[in-house]
Amino acid sequence: MSGKTDHAINSGSGPYVYRMHGQNYHIACSLLPEECKLPKFCQLYIYDTDHEVDNRLNAHDSKKKKSTSHNSMGNPFSLEFLTVHELMGLLDFINPLVKQFRMARDLLESNPTERIRLKLIGTREKDGTQYNLLTTSEVAALIFLVDSYTVVEKDRLNYIRFNQPTLHVAPYRDLAEATQEGTEDAFAMGNRIIISSSFTGGIRYMQQNYLDAMTLRLFRYDIHYRTPPVEILSFHLQDKQLVVFKPSQRVTNVVSKPTIDASQFLAWMECNSYNEKVRELSYVEFPTQYVWNESDKVWTRRKTKTKSLGRINHVSPKSSDVYYLRIFLNKVEGPTCYEHLRTVNGTVYDSYKDACYALGLLDDDREYIYSIQETDHWATACFCRSLFVMLITSDSLSRPHHVFKETYNCHSDDVIHVREQEIGVKGLKQKPEAIYHLTLSYIEKSLLRCGLSLKQIPNMPLHDQKYIQDSCNMLIQYELNYDPSSLESEHQQLHSILNVEQKNIYDIVMNEFNNKKGGIFFLHGYGGTRKTFVWKTLSAAIRSKGEVVFNVASSGIATLLLSSGRTAHSRFHIPLNLNENSLCSITPGNDVVALLNKASLIIWDEAPMMHRHCFEAVDRTLRDIILPKNNDKPFGGKTIVFGGNFRQILPVIQRGNRSDIV
Fold this sequence. Notes:
Elements: E1 2-5, E2 18-21, H1 52-59, H2 79-94, H3 96-110, E3 116-122, E4 139-145, H4 146-162, E5 168-171, H5 172-180, E6 191-192, H6 203-208, H7 213-216, E7 230-233, E8 242-245, H8 251-255, H9 264-274, E9 290-293, E10 298-301, E11 309-312, H10 321-329, H11 338-341, E12 343-344, E13 347-348, H12 352-358, H13 366-375, H14 381-393, H15 400-406, H16 408-412, H17 415-423, H18 432-449, H19 474-479, H20 484-496, H21 500-515, E14 520-524, H22 531-543, E15 548-553, H23 556-559, E16 566-567, H24 568-572, H25 591-598, E17 599-605, H26 612-625, E18 640-644, H27 658-661
Parallel strand pairs: 7-11, 14-18, 15-16, 15-17, 17-18
Antiparallel strand pairs: 1-2, 3-4, 5-6, 5-8, 9-10, 12-13
Helix pairs in contact: 1-2, 2-3, 10-12, 14-18, 20-22, 21-22
């Protein structure tokens, strides 16, 4: 609650007007008073209750000297003493809250060495918008020993903490394929587990159960006394259920566990296979009649009248088949297998996306096709390709391959001209299939700048390598797409005009690069000290040797000054919502991992502008994916140069307003 004196209503000598905002509440203090201080408020019910009347009288008498000594007792026959004594007895008899404080007193007296916490939990049985006198049944008190609770919590956290190197999770199909390929060591498989979503009170637990700061604000409203409860339902593609394992295990032992197929989603389809009555229920309706038994991994029929609502976990549209499976599960009833899930009106479709189209759950992208064709009348083919890439990255298209097929001529008009500019040849002749693959390659390059690839888009055609001289990993090829001789000339020119301090920085970083030891540096300098010039010289020096350099910055504007600059979030796939346990969204084994292993130098400009959780997330990720494993070295042993100006950070002024800070 906040409040202030409102002088607009009464600015004279009369009583002032105090305007309140928010909800009125009382912050309770410790159950015991501080040393050499008298008890007050709720402490009066618990501490030194043999002299409680004197304590209460002293707490309200500012003229008496405050002391914890009781050498001089109050007159037990005075009117004040008798009045307070009678009120105490009355409250002890009728007030349910006072009874809970007395119970805490008794427990404290019997366990004087223990730390006691009193927690009052109110349940509302009447109208929440109207004040009603509390009853004993509406107030429950939890008194528990803090030491015992913290011991249990510490053990749970220690188990997760000390098992970080030994707990991994991976899809079952990946493990099965590794077994077929003869892989026995599970160390390089899957991702690390930081704090699982099953840890009560953890950040992932709160997010999974829809509990964040916004929802906690709603606890004062009557809606939180309603039913039914909501149950989160998991699902997965065929053979894609997640398996938790220890890297020291053999892969064959992991995939042969008897509980490998015991997932909530598979158990639902199994229940449909032998029980015809439940086939009229969709997945989200299933918890209204059945309860998931976590210990036995089976669905059992609900025995109580209380019903639970099912909610399927959120999935991003970029997740491809998983996203369309989620759409399908909200409509389909009673499937017994994955093939049944893809069946619509007796036709088995190849993908869940096609099945969604058959049910009319997706649009046909016709409006986007018309938009690209209209744009082709006044814009270049390069612009049309950029528009197509923008629609892909914004998840606007349901079938990107269909849109590309319908608008191919709009994307390919200038391909020959662009190719002539690239190779310096006039009058270039290309076959139609070559133009087709060149068009795809230009779209691929635009997607790579956005952190995507044609390989990540379902059913999209890929360019043929015999028409374009590219390596398999287009991310690495894009970073190596420089002329070494031109860069060497540029490097010599830039190096020749470095001043003494800049040369010293250049020599230190290049020495670490040549020795391949890795190191972390910070270049501090205010605006105008030519930090960007140092970045440009280092980049030219290393790229001229055929090595990969990352130039990243904390903001998009700062990247414009860097050679092939990218934001740190884009380059390292840093999540937008970070916490102290976050990891970058990079899957082991993909092209991004290969690119990060290839990088020889990382330049991170405007570093002080970012939260420390960003650097911690990148550090944890690089330690996991950089080969050979360098878990004991920061950032996986990579050479990183941070830069920035701490003078640009606004000072922290406690309780300061905008004018104080700026």
